[in-house]
Amino acid sequence: MKAAASTRKPNMREAILAAAEELFSTYGFNAVSVRDIAQAAGANPGSVTYHFRTKDGLLLEIYRRHCGPMNRRRSELLAAARRVRDLQDRLEAIVRAYVLPAFTSGSDLAGGGTRFTRLRAIMSAEGNEVVRKIIAQTFDDTSHAFIDAIHESLPHIPRTDLVWRSHFLLGALYYTLVTPERVSRLSRGSADGTDAGHAIEELVRATVAALQAAPLDEGAPRKIPAANPGRVVT
Amino acid sequence: MKAAASTRKPNMREAILAAAEELFSTYGFNAVSVRDIAQAAGANPGSVTYHFRTKDGLLLEIYRRHCGPMNRRRSELLAAARRVRDLQDRLEAIVRAYVLPAFTSGSDLAGGGTRFTRLRAIMSAEGNEVVRKIIAQTFDDTSHAFIDAIHESLPHIPRTDLVWRSHFLLGALYYTLVTPERVSRLSRGSADGTDAGHAIEELVRATVAALQAAPLDEGAPRKIPAANPGRVVT
DNA sequence: ACCATATTTGTACTATCGTCCAAATAATCC
DNA sequence: GGATTATTTGGACGATAGTACAAATATGGT
């Protein structure tokens, strides 16, 4: 070996994608420059332009790379979950089918699924316009399928409530991946926010309970909260 | 009135703060430039530097402005909730005391609380270093107080699980404020994601149920999930 | 070995970034 | 009303952003 700089990357395109994925999912899209990505991948900034034309194009390619396998995996797990006999077990299996692929990507290396989900979390927070369409197109179908499956297991709960609750699930999932150290901090070390296995179990348990809760309409009529927050202006 | 440009702002500093708050909470910290803020506030870019020295200083001042009143409000509501006799009602009141101030700021104008919470959501996603310390210092005390109160209402559930579940609550809360249109979309119009009042009720109901769920330790021993996601490398 | 193609490199361009500063203007106090 | 302070203005600075492009180099087929 002559020098470190002389080692040749077998596939620079992949290296750039991996570096971009890691940086975007950690610092957000806007905080990372093309030059940062190139340096992390051991490539020239011009190479990024050559392979992906624009920075947006690079982000798009990352999504293309992951969406297919992840949604395929989700469909498989969902189909298997639907076949579970016991209703309670089936509901839990459905939730697990939604959560698991977010943590473990089928084909990619360790932490691949986590990284991409963290990326999605940051992108939805930043309100990235390029990604918004992909989200709506690619993920809404999956979300609808899951909500339908959940509704079959809990037919007495209005779909609207189930939409809200699975929305909360996704928010909790995102937040756990984005700030795992907060759990460690608040639990004073008795829990590890980066322990994906445990996070999944906690998330599934909590979500199943939330989904089974009585809907807002029925049950004992509740008092209207003291303060009236009105409608959010946006 | 002579011309629109001649109207003088009574307090330019406040106008800049308001504009920055709105823009940061919508597009994130990195996507918004000092010039964007100045223009939205009808001010000169130099004015921003004059009042807040740096862009970070501006963000810091926004936090300083909101943290005090919001946490004070939370403390009051939490104290009131602790006095509720019925255990089930008390738990619900505690959760409501945590959620309500995030939607309605005590002193500010309409949507002030929502805007600041949305800002916090985006900042935690972007991993802003300037803000991380404030979060840990200012909000962890409040979070601990709430977890303690919840633990009093649910003494049979280990604190660790309650930390996880209140973490999920915050994630769900953030996500609802960041992408409210997703709820409207997925529910096909039967729910309005921007309806803060309804969002609060759904969130409280779901969270109370999640908090009351059996902890992971006890209950029927569960199967270990097929795939072993291992530990997230970060 | 040679050619055609694919990729990498280095550099340059324009735009915009955060921040600074001196001059202009408004507000305040004696 | 004049002096003093506070604020606003417009322009400038160096740094860095995304992207483009020609030259250099590597690759693969024949």
End-to-end distance of chain A, in Å? 59 Å
The CATH architecture of the largest domain in chain A can be given as Orthogonal Bundle
Question: Number of helix segments of chain A?
Answer: 10
Segments of chain A where pLDDT lies below 50 for 5+ residues? Answer: 1-7, 224-234
Number of strands of chain A: 0
What's the CATH superfamily of the largest domain in chain A, by name?
A: Tetracycline Repressor, domain 2
What is the chain-wise order of helices and strands of chain A? HHHHHHHHHH
How much helicity do the residues of chain A have?
Answer: 55-70%
CATH class of the largest domain in chain A: Mainly Alpha
Write a structural description.
Two copies of one chain form a homodimer. Chain A has 234 residues and is mainly alpha-helical. Helix content of chain A is 68%, strand content 0%. Chain A has two domains: 11-53, Orthogonal Bundle (Arc Repressor Mutant, subunit A), CATH 1.10.10; 67-212, Tetracycline Repressor, domain 2 (Orthogonal Bundle). The first copy, chain A, is built from ten helices and no strands. In chain A, helix 7 (129-153) packs across helix 8 and helix 8 runs antiparallel to helix 10. The longest helix of chain A has 28 residues, at 55-82. Chain A is globular and about 55 Å long. The N and C termini of chain A lie far apart (59 Å). Chains A and B meet through helix 5, helix 6, helix 7, helix 8 and helix 9 of A and helix 5, helix 6, helix 7, helix 8 and helix 9 of B.
